[in-house]
Amino acid sequence: MLQVSQGGWILVILLLLTVYAAYVFFERFLSLRRERLGGDKLMREVEACLRRGRLEPAMEACRIHGGTLGRFVLAGLPRVPYGVAAVDAALKAALLEEEARLSRGLAVLSVTAQVAPLLGLLGTVTGMIRAFNVLAVEGQTTAQLLAGGIGEALFTTAGGLIVAIPALMGYHYLAGRVEDLLTELEQRREELLGALVEVDNAQKAEA
């Protein structure tokens, strides 16, 4: 384990950064884990309601389903009376909102993965400066005199990498999960718009 006393103040910052990044990761992990994929049943329900011209039951089905997909589809349904273009515009706006909500906190992990090695490098530089200052003052080289500065350099370098590697892995894992959710929303948008076009064509054929 890294010893804080040997890493100096930079290692303290790295430890605090580790705690914060870990909190963000697990909060986002649990939040994204609760998001429901696989909305085939919901889409069948919504499409069936739209073909019967029953908008309110379709909206209620979205509310019951909940989650990202429920909110997303629900955002477009009130615009159905105004045409497919209006629904598409509402869904695109909702997609941007969901992307921002799902991606919340990911920037923290990304920045941590980039900043931690730089802090480690800074600790390496300050540690070596400290070691050379000791040499300049004492005018002699002994392991005891150099140990403090070199120890700080090595411990902060290791600390930076220990923080950065898990942060980078966590970021890519969560970013992949967000991408999966957004891909499904895009797919469901196409399904809903396709169903609305079919309903519109059927109504024109009957007219």
* Overall pLDDT metric: 85
DSSP summary: helix tally:
7
Strand content: under 5%
Largest sheet, described in full?
none
What separation lies between the terminal Cα atoms?
Answer: 77 Å
Q: Based on Cα principal axes, name the global outline.
A: rod-shaped
Order of helices and strands: HHHHHHH
* Portion of residues within helices: over 70%
Q: How many extended strands? A: 0
The overall number of domains is 1
Radius of gyration: 27 Å
What low-confidence regions span 5 or more consecutive residues with pLDDT below 50? 1-5
Structural class: mainly alpha
Organism: Marinithermus hydrothermalis (strain DSM 14884 / JCM 11576 / T1)
Subcellular location: Cell membrane; Membrane
Main location: membrane
Pfam family, one: MotA_ExbB
Features:
207 residues, mainly alpha, 7 helices, 87% helix, transmembrane helix, MotA_ExbB_proton_chnl, transmembrane, MotA/TolQ/ExbB proton channel, protein transport
Tell me briefly what this model is.
The protein is an all-alpha fold and 207 residues long. The protein has 7 helices and no strands. Belongs to the exbB/tolQ family.
Provide a descriptive summary of the structure in words.
This protein has 207 residues and is mainly alpha-helical. The protein has one domain. It is 87% helix and 0% strand. It has helices at residues 4-34, 40-51, 55-65, 67-76, 84-102, 106-138, 143-206. Helix 3 runs antiparallel to helix 4 (67-76) and helix 4 packs across helix 7 (143-206). The protein starts with a helix and ends with a helix. Residues 1-5 have low confidence and may be disordered.
